[in-house]
Amino acid sequence: MSPFLPDLRARLPQFIGARPDAADALRALKVALVGVGSVGRGIAFHLARFGGILWLVDRGRLKPESQLTHPGVGPADIGEPKASNLARALAACGFCGQGFAHDGPVEELPLVAFADAGLVVLASDNLRAEVEVGRRCAQLGKPLLQASVHGDTLVAQVRFFSGKPGSPCPACGYTKAEWQAYRENRPFKCEPLGWVTPRQQESPPPAPTMSTSFLCSLAADMAMVQITRFALGLGAPVADTLVEYAGYTHRTVVSPLACKADCPGEHLEWRQVRLGMHLGDTTLRSLAATAGFAPRSFEVDDYTFAERGGCGCPTTVPLGRFVTPGEGVEQCAACGCPIVGHPFYLHRPVPASAVEGALDRPLSSLGAGAARWAAVRGDDRAVLLFHGPDAMACWGAGTS
Amino acid sequence: MRVEEVQRPVPQGGLAALDDVVLDARLQGLLDARAAACGGPRWWASRKRAEARDLAAMSVVAPRFKVCELDLRETFRALATLRAPVPCRPNGAGQLRVERLALLGITYEPRYVFEDAPGYAFVTILEPAGVWHPNVATRPAQAVCLGPTLPAGILVKDLVVLTYAALAMDRKLVQMDERAAAGVMNAEAAVWWQQHGGLVPLTGTPFLAPGD
C-alpha cells in the first residue's frame, strides 16, 4: 500500500451488493497490464489508485503524437519507453503499492511472468501480442480483460475472458482479415547470414491506431467498471462477455463471447506447481512424477532440445541436450567450428520418447540450468512447474 | 526379357488431387503408426495428419519422391528422398559434381500455419554433403532457402516441389545475386553460379514426370 495515498475507503462508495471488505479486495488486485498506450495508461492510473501491484509491459516509446491521446504525457516524456515512464509517473504521484515495468515485447517475458497476477489487462493494437497474451492467460488460467477502440465509428469495446477451461481467447474472434493482418505483422531477414532483406528495408512503419483521447479514456473507464465488477462480484458476472459502446447511437451492447472450435489456441489450462528448488536441480523424470501422469512431451523455458548437432562437416553428432538458438555447445574436432543444434533434429516441445536417455540427468547438466519454468504435457492435460523467485526475477526490483 | 514401365497412377488433378490417391500397404502402415502418436492441439494434429497423408500420396504418384519416415508427435517432421540433380562443390579442376538423389529433412512448426515464414525454415538437405547452391547453406546445416518469405500455411507438398525447383536451378526460383541477399545462403556459390550461367537449369523435367 502506498504511504502517500489516503485510505481507499475515504471515497469508496457503498456499491450495491458489494462485500463488506470491498476496499481490501480492490487493494489486493494484482494486475499485469500489457500495452500502456492511450487506453492502457488510463487504466493504469485508475488501478494504481487502488494501491495494488501492477506489472506494466509495452514495447513502444512515447512519441510527440502520444501527447494527443496518452494521459499525463508531456514534452519531457517524449522518447522514453512507455512502460518504465508510466511506472515512474505512478510512483511520482505516490500511487500504486508496487509497480514493475518491462520495456519490450510481451513475448520476451517468460511464460510464468504473470504467474502471480490475478488479472491480465490487454490494451495493445498489436495482434501478435494479443494472440500471445491470450495463449498465456489460457495456459495460466488467468482472467483477461481486453480494451480497445475504433476511432472512425466512435466505438469503445471491452472484452472479458474468464480464463477457465473451454472459455474463449482473443483469437477466437479473429476474422480472416485479422489473421491476414497478423500474418503481415513482421518482416523477416535471412538470419543465418545476418543480411537485411530488401523487403524489410522497404517496409513502412505500422500505421498508428487513429483515435481521440476521450474515446481512449472512455474505453479505459469501461474497463475499470468491468474490473471493479469482477473484483467485487457486482451485478451479473462479466466473464466471457463483450461490452461495446457506440458513440454515434449512444447504444451499449453486451454480448457473450464463445470459444471457436477451430481456434488455433490450445484452450488448455495448465495446472501450476511451485517448486521449492531451482529447475536446474531437477530432472525430467522428477518433473513428470510431480505432474502425476505419463508425459507426452516436455517444454523447458525457451530452450530447444537438440537430438543431434552439426557444424558443416558431412556427419552430424549426437547432442541430447537443451540449447538456445545458435548456441555452440562444443567444438568440432575436425573443422574447429562450433557444433550447434541441427535444425532437423531440434524439438520444442520435445516428445518424451525423444528424451528417454536424458530423463534422469539434472536440467543443469542438460544445458538448461537457467530454466525458469518447465511444462509437462499429456494428451489432454498439462502441468506448469516453476520456482517462484526465478519466475519473477525477470521483473527486477520494481518501484514502490 | 520384357521390360515393362511401371505406370504411376497420377490423378487427373495432379498434386491438387492427392486425396484420391490410394496408398500402398507400406505407406498406409507408416501413416497409421505415426498418426497414433500424433500430438498437439486438435487443429494442429489434424493438419499434421493431412500433411502426412499428402506426402504419402505424393510418394505414390511422384516417381522422384519417396517419404521414408514421419514424426507427428509435436513439430511435423518428415524424412524423404528426392531424385533431383544435386549440385555439389566443384572439384579441384573446377568441375561441378552433380549427385542424383537428395535426402531431405522437412520440419514444420505450428506457428507457420499463421505466420509468414523465412524461406529457410522448412527444408534441410541431410545428404549428400557439400551441396553447392546459392540458396543452400553450408553450415551448420544445409538449410534450403525457398524464398525471402513463404506464405503462412504453405503446404508441405508445395515445399517439396519448391525444393525440386531449387535443386534443378530453376531460374524463376533461384536467387543468385549475392548483393540482393534475400534467399542467398552461400555467397561463394552464388558468385560461382553467376559465372557458370550456362549450366542453368540443371534439368527441365517437371516434378511429376519420369526420367532424370
Short key terms for the protein model shown above:
heterodimer, A: 400 residues, alpha/beta, eight-stranded mixed beta sheet, five-stranded mixed beta sheet, 18 strands, globular, B: 212 residues, alpha+beta, five-stranded antiparallel beta sheet, 4 helices, 7 strands
- What is the number of helical segments of chain A per DSSP (H or I, 4+ residues)? 10
Poorly predicted regions of chain A: 186-203
What percent of the residues of chain B sit in helical stretches (DSSP H or I)? Answer: 25-40%
Measured as a percent range, the helix fraction of chain A is: 10-25%
Apparent shape of chain A: globular
| Strand order in space, largest sheet of chain B | 1-2-3-5-6
Across the major sheet of chain A, the strand order is 3-2-1-4-5-6-7-8
Succession of helices and strands of chain A: HEHEHHEEHEEHHHEEEHEEEEEEEEEH
Distance between the termini of chain B: 23 Å
* Continuous helix count of chain B: 4
Taking the sheet with the most strands of chain B, its summary is:
5 strands, antiparallel
Report mean pLDDT of chain A, rounded to a whole number.
Answer: 88
Largest chain interface and its two residue counts? A-B, 53 and 43 residues
Number of strands of chain B: 7
Low-confidence stretches of chain B: none
Based on CA atoms alone, the radius of gyration of chain A comes out at 23 Å
Count of strand segments of chain A:
18
Summing up helix and strand content along with how strands pair, one would put the structural category of chain A as alpha/beta
Shape category of chain B? globular
First-to-last CA distance of chain A: 9 Å
Element pattern of chain B in H and E: HHEEEEEEEHH
